[in-house]
């Protein structure tokens, strides 16, 4: 059974280096700009995963109930992971993932 642990802290993205604010309505777990995330949760918000690889978006699907669902692949272990997009995610980045024109290198260390 999955356990949800609220963990909503601001952070600096490890990939693009942009500051990411708190989400305020749930747990923030990915960058709003490049959508990269860290493979750090076993269950949402617990920060108990030892992998710590970078999760990059590989696809986006649309759910009638949940909105945009981002599919991630871990750059270290290869595990696939789905996550709901946040209201303040950059829509242009979501579109790039959907259109298969997204490249993490376009965002590397932007500042």
What would your notes on this structure say?
The protein is mostly beta strands. It has one domain. Helices cover 7% and strands 26% of the residues. It has one helix at 91-98, and strands at residues 11-12, 19-20, 37-38, 54-63, 67-74, 80-84. The strands form 2 sheets. The chain has a 4-stranded antiparallel β-sheet, with helices on one face. The chain has a two-stranded antiparallel sheet with strand order 1-2. Strand 4 and strand 5 (67-74) form a beta hairpin. The mean pLDDT is 89.
N→C terminal distance:
39 Å
Which H/E pattern describes the elements? Answer: EEEEEEH
Q: How many strand units? A: 6
Helix content: under 10%
> Strand portion, in percent?
25-35%
- Low-pLDDT residue intervals, each spanning 5 or more residues: none
**What structural class do the secondary elements suggest?**
mainly beta
Describe the sheet with the most strands. Answer: 4 strands, antiparallel
Number of DSSP helices? 1
**How many domain modules?**
1
- How does the overall form come out from the CA principal axes? globular
For the largest sheet, list the strands in their spatial order.
3-4-5-6
